[in-house]
Amino acid sequence: MTSGAAFSGDDPRQLLSGTRDLIDQVRRTQRATWFPLLVLAVVTFAALPFRSSPHRLGTCAATEAVRVCTAYPPALLVYWPTALVLAYMVIAAFYIRRSRACGVGTRVQPYVVAGIILALAMTGSLVWTLYHPLAFTLAGPGLLPALHSYPFGIGLALVVLAWAERNGALLDLALGYLTLMLVTATVGSVSGHGGLGFLVQLVIPGSVLLLGGIGFFLAQRPWRRAA
Amino acid sequence: MTSHPANALDDIVHQRVRLGILTIAHEARRVEFSYLRDTLGLTAGNLSQHLGVLEAAGLIAIEKGYAGKRARTWVTLTKAGQAALEDEIAQLKLLISRIEPAGTSPS
Questions:
Q1: Which CATH number describes the domain made up of B5-89?
Q2: pTM higher than 0.90 for the full model?
Q3: Which ipTM was obtained for this model?
Q4: Which of A69, A190, B48, B91 is most buried (CB neighbours < 10 A)?
């Protein structure tokens, strides 16, 4: 696609307008938002079998008024950080390969770094919380598990990607996704083993990521850009 | 007497193709020769001339290499190039504000 004809003239307004058009064009070329969303949807859905594995990690603690117990599957605690770190590495490799093919640099580095740091930090925080159950009483039954859920970390990293790609549509999606996670967590308990916790923790975020990925793929597909 | 903002424009940067090259290099961080050529609608020779002017002024850095068997030329903005671009944009905005009375905008 050529914008050389549009970027013409010496009038300051035309020059400024031309630079804005060029900036938009470069940003459209750099964006591949659909790829991380689809990869992370796959990672989220692939966690489903691990969630039903035995909840062996955790402990109980009590005060005079309340007794709180935590339980978490060790398999899931291994799965999430491993899968997320691998996913962010695959995403980085995809963006770098695409950058070489398109001829423009990539802005994915802050996103990948933020995603990996969040995945590792959430693991540490989750392990601490599992062995300090009374922390749950401070934030309510739904909120703390939501903040410690890996899909919530995926959403936070997507905010970084939206900033890096200067992508308003992705920012809207990421904020909507995070709001949905918090709302569903406060409406129903997500720490239980029942259907609602299962739905809130994996199926809803996975579906949002999948639908978002399909939507961005349709909007950013190469044949549309070339048209 | 304050000088007119047009006098502060740098002739090297205040040229639409070179301004376009600096803008793309700034946004892309690193841009390949063919992307610049296609996006700005230039011939390879014409683009090379403009890149030569910008490189001689220290506003861009040019790096040649290979991607597989293909020769590639990558362009990055230098700190001086970044400053020159920011200054040019500021001067253009100042010029527009002088041309247009406050509160009006082009239709």
A1: 1.10.10.10
A2: no
A3: 0.81
A4: A190
